[in-house]
Amino acid sequence: MSAKEPLVRVEHLNVTLGGNPILKDIDFALYPGQIHAITGENGAGKSTLAKVIAGIHQPAFGTIYLGENPVQIRTPKEAIRQGIALIHQEPLIFPDLNVAENVFVGRLPKKASMTDHREAIRRTNEILQQLGVDIQADSEVGNLSIAQQQMVELATAMSEDAKVWIFDETTASLTSKEVSELFKIIRGLQARGCAIAMVTHHLNEVFEIADTVTVLRDGAKIAERKITDLNHDQLVNLMVGRDIAKDHLSRTEDTPIEPFIELKNLTGPGFKNVSLTIGKTEIVGIAGLVGAGRTEVARSLFGITHPTAGSIIKNGETIYVRSPKDAQRQGFALVPEDRQRHGLFPNLSIEYNTSANILGASSTAGWLNAKSMQNKSLAMLEVFKTVFKNIGQPVRQLSGGNQQKTVIGRWLLGNPDFLILDEPTRGVDVGARREVHQALRTQADSGKAILVISSDLAELLTLTDRIYVMNGGTIVGEMATRDATEESVMALAFGGTE
Amino acid sequence: MKIKRELGLIVVLVIFNVLCALKEPNYISPRNIDSILLWMPLLLVAAIGQFPVIVARGIDISVGSILGLSAITTGVLLKTHPNLSLLALFVIGALVGIILGCINGLLIAFGKIPAVVATIGTLTLYRGLTFMVSGGDQIDASTIPDKLTALANSGWTFKEVTVSWLLIIGITFAIIAACATRFAQFYRNVFAYGSNPDAAYLRGISPTMVQMVCYGASGLMGGIAGIMFLSRFGNASPSSAGSGFELVVIASVAIGGVKITGGSGSVLGVFLGCLLLSCINVALTALKFNADWQQLIYGITILIALIIDSASQIRRTRSAA
Q1: Quick check: B188 and A108 CB within 8 A?
Q2: How far is B116 from chain A (nearest CA, A)?
Q3: When you count CB atoms within 10 A of the terminal residue's CB, does the N or C end of chain B come out lower?
Q4: For the segment A442-471, what is each residue's pLDDT rounded down to a tens digit?
Q5: From the centroid of its chain, how far is CA A449?
Q6: CATH 3.40.50.300 domain extents, chain A
Q7: Measured between CA atoms, how close is B291 to chain A, in angstroms?
Q8: What ipTM, to 2 d.p.?
Q9: What does pTM read for this prediction?
């Protein structure tokens, strides 16, 4: 396993997406017979690195070598032809086609220039047997489980005779039994001399299967270590170890907090047995990895999905939130994660975007009171120090930070008692972020309860009073923010075994 | 799962015809069967063109105008060249169709215009062109050669029922298309693309290629249907030839069980969908329904078919979850 030539190597790789640098000067190599884990926090650039090697993204600068030769991998098809397979987190399958057609999509075996389905099925069954999975080659893929669909992807790569296998968070949607089956297959590939990269943020998996680990942070390579040279804590330190100025925006009052919103063993789509409390004047954070079930809890609280068990209690009374409209009647507000898709009306004016939720409140007998609406909007924009030319300009012309201020301001205009924010400052620059944080703290001080979901630990440590940590759909820890450190939160979020 | 739809359609066809026969004993007469068989071929040919378009998550609304422009262009050429051979007529119609279809393809594949909008635009544009080409004049019966109308009036006759040459042409196309859906790599790519466009792209299937060929083929079949229109009706007017036809075509594909969201369907289903609409059309006349009812009944049939699809889709997602 040593002193061999790498199958794939990248040098000085730089990637820019939408004007933002995502990867900075990365050197990385995959050797035959070696399992190389790529790990890091959310947004560290792990998946981007995988996608560059698989031809989905193009580097702005830097070289990819296959063996000795520098190559350009312009399309996914070229990567496949070079023997590079990328296994995606969400299986990339054709639900309406059968397994054999999925495996041989675009290149079915032919007899007399007509596609030969019998041959496709025979060869697929052969590969499936080799993989040791029990799937019929003629079953429709849409009817298979996620794990089985993943096996179909593996079979596809196998049929393409892939030498380099990149698994991008492949285990995220699998059960632990399915994961161990997948690992068995990966070890089989390793034994056959394939080079394997595993993008993962599950540290247990890194220690279980990898030979080498590369740690990325904010798009830069922080370290590459043999797995035997590391322990769990050292790896967590490598992943998060940035210095943050700890300027904590703590509660100004020191009155004891009465619980205002309580969740008791709330279970629903994507989360189970979630219990937490939030008091008035308090800002509570939920930390965790993407897919830990945080957004799902928020969606259930806001009536978008419905819990199957447990209860939501407001002011000591159990309530049922049947729809977003119902949630607003209860005095709830949700600032969604993806502001482009769920939050903004990009082509409408700033005024409309700010006042969209109070149209009912600022109208008389169905007619809008334009003057009062405008005044309220302007006041709210002022609270957030939003920068704009005039209130009639389309909101899409604003910067990300100012757009986000508009969205949050809109919900605050409805004067909610309970505000939920999902990733409130994603893609927002440092200055605007500070202003958003301060405005939120002012709102909390005025008596609102605020729940902040964030993948950005620095944000949670700055803004919140208490932090809950979620992992695998449930709450795994709670701590007062003043006692929390990035390391302690991350250790819980990654499901660390001490 | 997939066979069920075709079986269901056959059951519906049988029940429908039995009910009609019970209501009106003369319904199953050679005359009515002739009408059904004569009503079908144009629809079938155009629907076979529409089929891959819808499988690839698109739609071609312009097909009625493509039919019209093909019929009118060929008719105008016949005025000056009355001796064109049958084959030449079909080639001209096909060429007109391919060109128009490829314009649709360019707008959608390269212009990135949503298919509904692009083909509504060309529906109007091509209709406008029929007036330019014809100068507003009808193509009347004297222009259409007898050998062309003979395709509709003669064929294989068993007892008193005639299977016209037009229907034989239509069924030949259907058989070719049925084989192609199964045995042509390109057709399988269309299904893969319709089933998951992103995955298809990542597996090296070119979306522009799929769209160009699908809309080109739909145009081709619409052009051929234009010649069949001349044959069957013996005349054509620039305003009415093929007008409203697109909706019947799309309806028959939808009724035939082709998923409107793409990725699945069969030529047999499309065939049965065309047959059902033909039966309904003839039955309305035979049962002396007012012609005004026709649209209403079409609409109901289409909605029932789509409700069945979405119900089975919902069941499927539930059982998967």
Answers
A1: yes
A2: 23
A3: C
A4: 888 888 999 999 888 888 888 899 999 998
A5: 25
A6: 8-240, 259-493
A7: 40
A8: 0.80
A9: 0.77
- In this complex, do A140 and B203 lie within 8 Å of one another by their Cβ atoms? no
Q: Is the pLDDT of residue B72 over 90?
A: yes
* Tally of CA atoms within 13 A in the half-sphere of B44 that contains its CB: 28
Interface contact A25, partner B, CB < 8 A: no
**Architecture of the domain made up of A8-240:** 3-Layer(aba) Sandwich (3.40)
Q: State which fold the A259-493 domain adopts.
A: Rossmann fold (3.40.50)
pLDDT, averaged across chain B = 88
The answer, for A106 touching chain B at a CB cutoff of 8 Å, is yes
Nearest-Cα distance to chain B for A93, in Å, is: 6
- What gap in Å lies between CA A166 and CA A146, rounded to an integer? 18
pLDDT of B319 reads 56
**Per-residue pLDDT at B231:** 92
Residue B188 sits at the chain A interface (C-beta within 8 Å)? yes
| Low-confidence residues of chain A: pLDDT under 50 | 1-2, 243-245, 497-498
Residue B115: pLDDT over 90: yes
Question: What six digits make up the tokens of A333?
Answer: 């507000």
**pLDDT in the model for residue A418:** 93
Residue B107 per-residue DSSP state: I
Cβ within 8 Å, pair B191-A96:
yes
Residue B97's CATH number: 1.10.3470
What does the alpha-carbon distance between residue A356 and residue A120 come to, in Å, rounded to a whole number? Answer: 56
The residue ranking higher by pLDDT, B318 or A93, is A93
Q: Which two tokens stand for residue A296?
A: 């799902």
Interface probe with B: pick from A96, A115, A117, most Cβ of B within 10 Å: A96
Q: Are B200 and A106 within 8 A, CB to CB?
A: yes
CA angle B109, B112, B118 (to 5 degrees): 90
Could you tell me if B196 lies within 8 Å of chain A, comparing CB atoms? Answer: yes
Model pLDDT, residue A366: 72
Domain assignment present for B21: no
Q: Does A101 touch chain B (CB under 8 A)?
A: yes
CA pair distance B126, B70, nearest whole angstrom: 10
Residues from chain A that touch B204, judged by Cβ atoms under 8 A, are: 75-77, 80, 106
If one counts the domains in chain B, the total is 1
Residue B281 lies in a domain: yes
Distance (Å, rounded) from C-alpha B40 to C-alpha B169? Answer: 11
CA-atom Rg of chain B in angstroms: 20
pLDDT value of position A211: 93
Residues of B in contact with A108 (CB under 8 A): 185, 188
Residue B228's domain comprises 2-16+27-320
Within a domain: B138: yes
* Residue B22 falls inside a structural domain: no
Q: Which residue in the set B1, B184, B188 is minimally distant from A140, CB to CB?
A: B1
Report CB contact under 8 Å: A106, B189: yes
pLDDT at B313 over 50: yes
How far apart CA B297 and CA B275 sit, in angstroms, is: 15
